[in-house]
Amino acid sequence: MTRIVLFENIHPSALEVFNEAGLTDVVTYAAALPPAELRDALQGAELVGIRSRTHLDAELFSALPQLRAVGCFCIGTNQVDLNTAMLKGIPVFNAPFSNTRSVAELVLGETILLLRRIPEKNDRVHHGHWDKAADGAFEARGKTLGIVGYGNIGSQVGILAEAAGMRVVFYDVEAKLPLGNARACTSLHQLLEQADVVTLHVPGGSGTKNLVNAKALQAMKPGSILINASRGTVVDIDALHQALQSGHLSGAAIDVFPVEPKGRDEALQSPLIGMRNVILTPHIGGSTQESQENIGREVAEKLVRFVKSGTTKGAVNFPEVPYQDAGGATRILHVHRNVPGALGTLSGVMASHGLNIVRQQLQTLGEVGYVVSDVEGEVSDAVMAELRASAITIRCDRI
Ligand SMILES: NC(=O)C1=CN([C@@H]2O[C@H](COP(=O)(O)OP(=O)(O)OC[C@H]3O[C@@H](n4cnc5c(N)ncnc54)[C@H](O)[C@@H]3O)[C@@H](O)[C@H]2O)C=CC1
Ligand SMILES: O=C(O)C(=O)COP(=O)(O)O
Predict the structure, then answer these.
(1) Cys bridge to 335: 124, 261, 386, 394, which one at CB 3.0-4.6 A?
(2) How far are the Cα atoms of 10, 186, 305, 370, 391 from residue 321, in angstroms, in the given order?
(3) Quick check: ipTM above 0.95?
(4) Annotated catalytic residue within 105, 260, 320, 386
(5) Is 224 helix (H, G, I), strand (E, B) or coil?
(6) Which atom of ligand 1 lies nearest, measured to the CA of 229?
(7) Is 241 part of the annotated catalytic residue set?
(8) Can you give the pLDDT at residue 1?
(9) Where are the domains of the chain?
(10) Per CATH, the architecture of 100-280 is what?
(11) Whole-angstrom Cα distance, residue 96 to residue 228?
């Protein structure tokens, strides 16, 4: 029985998908666990499901030789050591689209609220003040929204913002098709110096660490606004604090932080706490009923298809072998070091045991190759043992 362990309150739609597929050994945890507890909880697990708060590092992968695949029930995969997972023959799947609309809607809402200084006005009314004034309050119509990272989320934010009458510019390291009337900037600086509101939608990781630093903040227009619902590492939070305190920026909405609380009962530590016209949210950009239900289903289906057929389509770190029906044959999933003659070595072992290959697919990615072979008849334990013992083999399974 395939043991599946799910963390971080993954939506029950995932459980439904696993159960419908006959995978009923599912253990669920409501929260992310610290490293030692995480390792214990994962003993014997073949599949693991996480969201953005569970870190799967090289040490953990080494302690879990039975682990076959990882499902990130979110978009970001920077919390997983993807390279180590690949070298150990473990594909990592995610849900690249399901929560993108939720983030985009939140960003549009925050744009309008911050332009009107609503966080500050809301707080004042709650504390017995009635400052009825138009000072510092602006319409979104006619303002310029600068989108940094024009991928699945950034491009949707642009469409929603244009519907509200905003002018949209974007900056991306890759060439992108501008949607609606959006215009591409040739540099981050060009975007920063013209946008009234800057919103960040780049991935986390070393390539975007402190992308918005003191210099970038200084380049932004006086009185402009920063929104970050991407990753906490993208913004130098102390520099942002300074820019807000000096009044150079008039507001900010921050959903993600360099260090985030580990659970419900831990308070966020941030210099931004208590600042005027600053919205702080607990990393809920993608947290809606709709998105979580869809993500639960989407990622669970990818894991089920991998377990049942070996397909790695949609894996973010692994050679992608598309789905193909096994047509009654026995299927051998072989992950190997990508060296010359690997396919010949593998086929040679099968031939020496009289196995006839009816279908075979090979894909490679960097140092790893993945072969899905359909063979006639039974595949004995002796064949599997010989395949596993080969010097090129990383892992080998039979379906
Ligand atoms: N706050 C939340 O709850 C959520 C946060 N996210 C975060 O949002 C990020 C973006 O999500 P998607 O739009 O779906 O990703 P995506 O991969 O579709 O788009 C990211 C874009 O950023 C661009 N990019 C990469 N490095 C860049 C750089 N240095 N400067 C400018 N552009 C750069 C890429 O070329 C790509 O077009 C995710 O990686 C995740 O970290 C995603 C979902 C929910
Ligand atoms: O999808 C992402 O990358 C997110 O940041 C959302 O993460 P979460 O599932 O809310 O922990």
Answers:
(1) 394
(2) 27, 36, 11, 8, 23
(3) yes
(4) 260
(5) strand
(6) 1
(7) no
(8) 87
(9) 1-99+289-317, 100-280, 324-399
(10) 3-Layer(aba) Sandwich (3.40)
(11) 19
User: How many angstroms separate the alpha carbon of residue 2 from the centre of ligand 1?
Assistant: 33
Catalytic residue among 11, 116, 167, 283: 283
The Cα–Cα gap between 35 and 23 comes to 26
Does the structure show a pLDDT above 90 at 263?
no
Predicted TM-score of the model (pTM): 0.93
pLDDT score recorded for residue 126: 98
Using the mean position of ligand 1's atoms as its centre, give its distance from the Cα of residue 200 in Å: 8
Whether domain 1-99+289-317 has CATH 3.40.50.720: the reply is yes
231 a catalytic residue: yes
Residue 124 catalytic?
no
Indicate which ligand has the atom closest to the C-alpha of 97. 1
Condensed to tens digits (0 to 9), the pLDDT of residues 301-329 reads: 999 999 999 999 999 999 999 999 999 99
User: Tokens 């006639």 appear where?
Assistant: 376
pLDDT number for residue 265: 87
Output the pLDDT for position 264.
85
- As beta bridge partners, residue 334 has 371, 396
Instruction: Please determine whether the domains at 1-99+289-317 and 100-280 fall in the same fold group of CATH.
Output: yes
Among 51, 77, 102, 234, name the best residue to mutate to test ligand 2's pocket (greatest count of ligand atoms within 8 A of Cβ). 51
The pLDDT tens digits for 36-91 are 999 999 999 999 999 999 999 999 999 999 999 999 999 999 999 999 999 999 99
The residue with tokens 């780049």 is 202
- Report the amino acid identity of residue 34: P
Q: Which protein residues are within 6 Å of ligand 1, measured from CB?
A: 75-76, 99-100, 103, 148-154, 171-174, 201-204, 207-208, 211, 229-231, 255-256, 283, 285-286
